[in-house]
Design a protein that fits this description.
One of its GO terms (cellular component) is proton-transporting two-sector ATPase complex, catalytic domain. Keywords: Coiled coil, Ion transport, Transport. One of its GO terms (molecular function) is proton-transporting ATPase activity, rotational mechanism. Belongs to the V-ATPase E subunit family. The longest helix has 101 residues. The chain has a four-stranded mixed β-sheet with strand order 2-1-3-4. It is of the alpha+beta class. Helix 1 packs across helix 4 and helix 2 packs across helix 3. The chain has five helices and four strands. A hairpin with a 5-residue loop joins strand 3 and strand 4.
Length: 234
């Protein structure tokens, strides 16, 4: 083999090696690019997941905050409604209380009312002897109806007329006036108790008003809600 053949074979070998090297280099480049793309995709997906999770977390926070704000507004509205309702009920009760003061002004009708209140109290207590307290202003009216009240009670209860001791030392508070606007007052009526003081039946006009309001409170509240001023104030 001459030099020309040897040179030719060497060149062929060089081309083969170069081709192999280029092919291998291409394979490495392709593989590296694929791995890079996979890793990049994984990183992108991981970041997307983090962003979604962060968004969901913040969205939940917003929803929780909205619920808290709604709850607070609802509670504030309820308190406002209850306050308006309470104000209206108290206003109605105060108005009724002022009307009670007129009851004792008509002595004829008030005298009959006192007798009825005493009879009712006796029927509740069912005691043979009781202590009676009234306003100092009503003392003479009470004394004037005691006999008829005892007889009416005895007839209704089928018992002997009871002993009624009128307390001349302790009276019920006087009616309200400019001098005792914020003090204790009584619009009228009576309070009866057993002799030992263990059983007390308060039958004053103010106590009866309280009882009536408690019994009629659902109806009163309904009237408050139907009142146009109530709706305007809420």
């Amino acid at each position: 083999m001459n030099d020309a053949d040897v040179s030719k074979q060497i060149q062929q070998m060089v081309r083969f090696i170069r081709q192999e090297a280029e092919e291998k280099a291409n394979e490495i480049l392709v593989s590296a690019e694929e791995e890079f793309n996979i890793e990049k995709l994984q990183l992108v997906e991981a970041e997307k997941k983090k962003i979604r999770q962060e968004y969901e977390r913040k969205e939940k926070q917003v929803q929780v905050r909205k619920k808290i704000e709604y709850s607070m507004q609802l509670n504030a509205s309820r308190i406002k409604v209850l306050q308006a309702q309470d104000d209206m009920v108290n206003s109605m009760k105060d108005g009724a209380g002022k009307e009670l003061l007129n009851v004792s002004q008509n002595h004829h009708h008030y005298k009959d009312l006192l007798k009825d209140l005493i009879v009712q109290s006796l029927l509740r207590l069912k005691e043979p002897a009781v202590l009676l307290r009234c306003r100092k202003d009503d003392h003479h009216l009470v004394e004037s109806v005691l006999s008829s009240a005892k007889d009416e009670y005895a007839e209704k209860a089928k018992v002997f007329p009871p002993e009624i001791i009128v307390d001349h030392t302790v009276y019920l508070p006087p009616p309200p006036s400019k001098h005792n606007d914020h003090g204790l007052f009584c619009s009228g009526g009576v309070v009866l108790a057993s002799q030992d003081g263990k059983i007390v039946f308060e039958n004053s006009l103010d106590a009866r008003l309280d009882v009536a309001f408690r019994k009629k409170l659902p109806e009163v509240i309904l009237l408050v809600f139907l009142h146009p001023l109530h709706h305007c104030s809420i």
